[in-house]
Amino acid sequence: MPKTPAVFLLLGLCLFGAADALYKQWIPDTNYENKTNWDKGSVPCGNDIVQFSAQRKVSVYVETVHSVQEIRLPVDGEFILPSGGGFTVSNGGDPGCGAGITAQFKDAESLQWFDPALWQAAESSDDLEKGRFLFSVHEESVPCQYDNVLFRAGSSFRVDTTSNQPSVPVQSVSVLGKKFSSSSEFTHYLGSHSGRLQFHGTSSPSVGASGCSDASGCDCGNSANHNRICGTVTCASMSCKKPLYPIGHCCDVCSAIVTIQYSSGFILESYRIRLQHLFLGLPSYQSIQLGMSKVLKSQYFLGVIPRAAAAEIQIVLLDGESGAVAEALARDILKDVQAQGSNLGITGAEFQASSGATSGDGAGDNAGVVVGAVFGVLIVVVGLPLLAVLFRRGVIKTPTMPTISIPSLSSLRRSQEEIGDFTDHGFENPIFDKPTMMPEVPGIYGTEAANSISLTSSGVHFVNPAYDENETSIDFSA
Question: Hey, CA dihedral for 303, 304, 310, 312, is it positive or negative?
């Protein structure tokens, strides 16, 4: 029987306090029995020499008894030996060990708290044990300020907690089966020999942060370390048409992103449960990874002027392929919002997909045109009165033009009378004009005046040799 919105609301109220504070478990360890901690890929046996780097600090958990030929210890380190754990020295008579090798314990110094690949997240410690892990963007894959941090009970570790802030706040930390939720108690543990070997770096974890009291969810608080987080991530190349970049993530992804605007009646965990119940259990959506969280999205007036960031709910959908299945789920989520959004405290929703599709189907482009037109009108309306005020106050002055003296008509007439009549009467060609019709200019056609230039009232004349083989100059009237 389908659950009504009221049932989802009741489930959300019951589970909100526990589920909003997720459990983040550290994956690596420094256990002796973990073969990945040895350079040869196997745990040393009775004929082997065990070597730890002399200058490296290490805390090693030894669960069972091991026989070795020799152990070379570091200057600062420890073995944590529970009941049944320890070492025996062999004289090289272990028949199943072979000739014996020198096995080097790997260095754990470079393992960082803010590496998303080194954490697993779940809604409860029971889900961690059963492998029911949650997907989230990179910033939220590492412990958030409201999360419970777990280091497995039967293990030790070494982690670099260096941060861009003085401390790394979380709600609680569990080490070797003991949960620390008191600041003073955990600070005392960090100062112990085991604490100094397990945690190192310029910042220290701090516990005791209160849980999220906002039913619509709380910001993770890791944005200050975004670059540090992304510095540990290697992004794969994308083949989809329009890869998307979710807020808080480090890489483009082929996916779909649903953005939800909400009112005071919205409950994050109840809505997460609703999506899991309605969609993620369907065979067509079993490949989907869903990450949902509250994010702060930058806002811009008219698309260009920054203003205060707005809180929204971001739902990232990954299908492990081109994003086509994720887009189909995004459309189904929007249909559900249209039908039941008012009952869930949702005031609006939209999506974008790697195919290039959006919930507006091109409305974004039209909106950009409208915004540009509005912005242009605003500039005219505001700019013109402002310019008028500046002119009136003398802040802006009209540039002065250089003074040009224009002669009067009487002076022009006098100049013309003094110079003579230089009116151009056209082009004079001596080939077609008779000598008697030409102006009487001495020597213009004589050989003694070759290459000469004469000034007459009709202009300047050049002798043209193309029409007079005895002349070497060109004749044009100008």
Answer: positive
Residue 435 DSSP SS3: helix
Backbone φ and ψ for 288, nearest 5 degrees, come out as -80, 135
Q: Which residue has the tokens 């290490």?
A: 58
- Best CA proximity match to 319, nearest among 363, 357, 355: 355
Note the maximum CA span of the chain: 140
CA-wise closest residue to 169 among 210, 125, 205, 138: 205
SS3 140: helix
**pLDDT digit string (tens) for 84-139?**
999 998 876 788 888 889 999 999 999 999 999 999 999 999 999 999 999 999 99
- Structure tokens belonging to residue 420: 């003579």
Distance from C-alpha of 154 to C-alpha of 369, rounded to nearest angstrom: 61
Whole-model pTM: value is 0.71
Number of other residues whose CB lies within 10 A of the CB of residue 57 = 18
Overall residue count recorded for the chain in this entry: 478
Torsion angles phi and psi, residue 172, rounded to 5: -155, 160
Cα angle value 167/252/288 (rounded, 5°): 95
Question: Distance (Å, rounded) from C-alpha 375 to C-alpha 371?
Answer: 6
Q: Look at strands 199-200 and 159-160 and give their pairing.
A: parallel
